């Protein structure tokens, strides 16, 4: 009786009775990772399961690759929607991050007669120092 190395659960391929997705192994396989290294990365899997999953992938490559491409398109769309929806929050976080990264420079100018004002312009910071 043949073993089932890959099963479909809620539209996703999983390896055996684990929660490890076939996608995870396929991406590693396409990057050139060995089956042994995959087992090290996913201790819930056996070497036999990894080889069985990769054999399943190779036997259903067109179908699996199509699913991967669709997943990547969906992720890109969701990312773009999130960026648009959260534009104000993202801008605020970038300003805070910039201010935090510039604290050492601001401390350098403390005690001088001038003032140091960082400003985010486009994708790079601009520094204003005006002597009094």
Labels describing this entry:
132 residues, alpha+beta, Arc Repressor Mutant, subunit A, two-stranded antiparallel sheet, 58% helix
- Report the β-strand fraction as a percent range: 15-25%
* Class of secondary structure makeup: alpha+beta
- Please outline the major beta sheet: 2 strands, antiparallel
Mean pLDDT: 85
Query: Could you tell me how far the N terminus lies from the C terminus, measured between alpha carbons in angstroms?
Result: 86 Å
User: Poorly predicted ranges (pLDDT <50, ≥5 residues)?
Assistant: none
Task: Estimate the helix proportion, in percent.
Answer: 55-70%
CATH architecture of the largest domain: Orthogonal Bundle
> What global shape is seen?
elongated
> Which fold name fills CATH's third level, the topology of the largest domain?
Arc Repressor Mutant, subunit A
What is the strand arrangement across the widest sheet? 1-2
From the alpha carbons, calculate the radius of gyration and give it in angstroms.
Answer: 25 Å
CATH superfamily of the largest domain: Winged helix-like DNA-binding domain superfamily/Winged helix DNA-binding domain
Number of domain modules: 2
Number of strands: 4
Notes on the protein architecture:
With 132 residues, the protein is an alpha+beta fold. The chain has two domains: 6-64, Arc Repressor Mutant, subunit A, CATH 1.10.10.10; 95-130, no CATH class. The chain has five helices and four strands, in the order E-E-H-H-H-H-H-E-E. The protein has a two-stranded antiparallel sheet. It has a two-stranded antiparallel ribbon with strand order 3-4. Strand 3 and strand 4 form a beta hairpin. Helix 1 crosses helix 3. The longest helix has 25 residues, at 61-85. It starts with 5 loop residues before the first strand and ends with a strand. The model has no long low-confidence stretch (mean pLDDT 85).
